[in-house]
Amino acid sequence: MNLPESYIPILIQAGVAIGFVAISLLGAHFLGPKQKKGNSVKNQSWECGVAVEGNARTPFSIKYFLTAVLFVLFDIEIVFFYPYAVNFREFGMQGFLAVLTFVAIFFVAFFYVWKRGALDWDK
């Protein structure tokens, strides 16, 4: 099998990542604490020393998860501004237009989400 030389670093990085995950999972399984079977007092839930109230599996509104996903989406957008802010003089007008296009796409997405009512908490 003949691989181009440019693939070798990618394969090494993938191998290291897979090896790290495998070692972490096996290490956690064999070296981690073992949970005893049974219904002892030690295995019961505690919330800051206060007795547990209700069921932990009560359903959440989908609005909670939608808000979390939207927050992550628009928060990640901000991360992409950092390289531009550091190198904005080197990018020139072409870089400015690229960032302007990027922001325009996210504004369209934001207004779409807004018009669909995802940001209305009263509904």
Commentary on this structure:
- This protein is mostly helical and 123 residues long.
- It contains four helices and no strands.
- The chain has helices spanning 8-31, 62-79, 81-86, 88-115.
- It is flat.
- The protein starts with 7 loop residues before the first helix and ends in an 8-residue tail after the last helix.
Topology readout:
Layout (H helix, E strand, L loop, with lengths): L7 H24 L30 H18 L1 H6 L1 H28 L8
Membrane topology: Multi-pass membrane protein
Pfam families: Oxidored_q4
Protein name: NADH-quinone oxidoreductase subunit A
Name the descriptors:
mainly alpha; flat; 123 residues
Give the N-terminus to C-terminus distance in angstroms: 59 Å
- Uncertain runs with pLDDT below 50, 5 residues or more? none
The total strand number stands at 0
Number of helices: 4
Structural class: mainly alpha
Percent helix, as a range, is 55-70%
Shape annotation: flat
H and E string? HHHH
Q: How big a fraction of the residues is strand? A: under 5%
Mean pLDDT: 83
Largest sheet: none
Q: Over all CA atoms, what is the radius of gyration? A: 25 Å
In short:
The chain has 123 residues and is mainly α.
